[in-house]
């Protein structure tokens, strides 16, 4: 299939088909290398299979441990307050401009995407704190959700999320089910902004059953390839 030309996010092929190019954000929150991470290695398998199934799409890596993801702090709250009261962006302190400006970039990149793949390790029953910081950059009233008379409403309808989460123990079934807070929270906030098509791929039990670890990874990779076949649809 030959790509004739690209315009407005569409690929016109020699067969005359028009395929919409989608943008996938591959958001990772792990300082380890792919080789040393169960989650990242399953994530890599997913990305490779996704690219094969959807060569026209763009997959953009967002490495939360390398990128500047501002935290909501006193400077940011004060700047938001001033902006609400009519202060011009250019009249904010240089520090506030840098932080609020960067938060706007993180948000814009999120808004422009069609699909999201999060890869996180379970750390202390949840995900690394930079994921919460990232969520605080993208849950912005008027952009990803709005307040209505019937309560808050999500604005990102029609998008999709896959969360690949690596956990040392077992949390999808058994006595620890109620102790998993990272995936449940991510799902809740994605639903809150309108993304109800949310799937979890748990890579779990490697520390509890070390002899099974390679087998667990291999099975998770198979599942990743399966999900990749339909994630672009
Ligand atoms: C700081 C830290 C906290 C962890 N907390 C938990 C935990 O609460 N529950 C659990 O089952 N495993 C826990 N683990 C184990 C990891 O979830 C496990 O090693 C997983 O494979 C990490 O993902 P990765 O292989 O993609 O890096 C923790 C590991 C680290 C480094």
Structure description:
The protein is α/β, with parallel strands linked by helices. It has one domain: Rossmann fold, CATH 3.40.50. It has six helices and ten strands, in the order E-E-E-E-H-E-H-H-E-H-E-E-E-H-E-H. The strands form three sheets. The chain has a five-stranded parallel β-sheet with strand order 5-4-6-9-10, sandwiched between helices. It has a three-stranded antiparallel β-sheet with strand order 1-2-3, with no helix packed on it. The chain is globular, with a radius of gyration of 20 Å. The chain starts with a strand and ends with a helix. The protein binds flavin mononucleotide (FMN). Flavin mononucleotide binds next to helix 1 and strand 9.
- CATH architectural arrangement: 3-Layer(aba) Sandwich
What profile does the largest beta sheet have?
Answer: 5 strands, parallel
SSE order = EEEEHEHHEHEEEHEH
User: What is the number of domains?
Assistant: 1
- Number of strand segments: 10
Instruction: Output the structural class.
Output: alpha/beta
If you average the pLDDT, what whole number results?
A: 94
In the sheet with the most strands, the strands line up as: 5-4-6-9-10
CATH superfamily: Flavodoxin domain
Runs with pLDDT <50, length 5+? 1-7
What do we call the CATH topology?
Rossmann fold
Q: Could you say which overall geometry the principal axes of the C-alpha atoms support?
A: globular
Q: Specify the helix fraction band.
A: 25-40%
Task: Indicate the radius of gyration in whole angstroms.
Answer: 20 Å
**Total number of helical segments?**
6
Strand content: 15-25%
Through-space gap between termini: 18 Å
What ligand molecules are bound, each kind once? Answer: flavin mononucleotide
The CATH class turns out to be Alpha Beta
